[in-house]
Amino acid sequence: MSAEGLPTKEQVLEALKVVKDPEIPVNVVDLGLVYEVEVHENGVVDVTMTLTAIGCPAQDLVKADAEMAVMRLPGVTGVNVEFVWTPPWTPARMTEEGKKMLRMFGFNV
């Protein structure tokens, strides 16, 4: 927790690791889908993220899961999840942990 009783960016990212892409068995953080996290003094957290494809039918599900995950953190009063498409997602944005998870499922990354 930060000095004001708000979560840090790192704590928000850790909370978001429970959110999985419905088509790829890896969380949105290790997939590299989370572009920015901003924690405001009033307890509102802004999350800027993308999906693996524009028009993904799971967008509403991922948004709801992300909002619920962050709202569980102490001091959070609201969550805004915004999807952006620039820059586009590529597998190069994945963490080493994400690539390791995908390799376990037989993906070549």
Task: Set down the secondary structure blueprint.
Elements: H1 9-16, E1 34-39, E2 44-49, H2 59-71, E3 78-83, H3 96-104
Parallel strand pairs: 2-3
Antiparallel strand pairs: 1-2
Give me a quick take on this structure.
By secondary structure, the protein is of the alpha+beta class. The protein has helices at 9-16, 59-71, 96-104; strands spanning 34-39, 44-49, 78-83.
Element string (H = helix, E = strand)? HEEHEH
Report the β-strand fraction as a percent range: 15-25%
Which sequence of strands runs across the widest sheet?
A: 1-2-3
Distance between the termini: 35 Å
Which structural class is indicated by helix and strand composition?
A: alpha+beta
| Helix residue percentage | 25-40%
Indicate the mean pLDDT.
93
Q: Could you say which overall geometry the principal axes of the C-alpha atoms support?
A: globular
Tally of individual helices: 3
Instruction: From the alpha carbons, calculate the radius of gyration and give it in angstroms.
Output: 14 Å
Task: Characterize the largest beta sheet: strand count, sense, and whether it forms a barrel.
Answer: 3 strands, mixed
Parts with pLDDT < 50 across at least 5 consecutive residues: none
How many DSSP E strands? Answer: 3
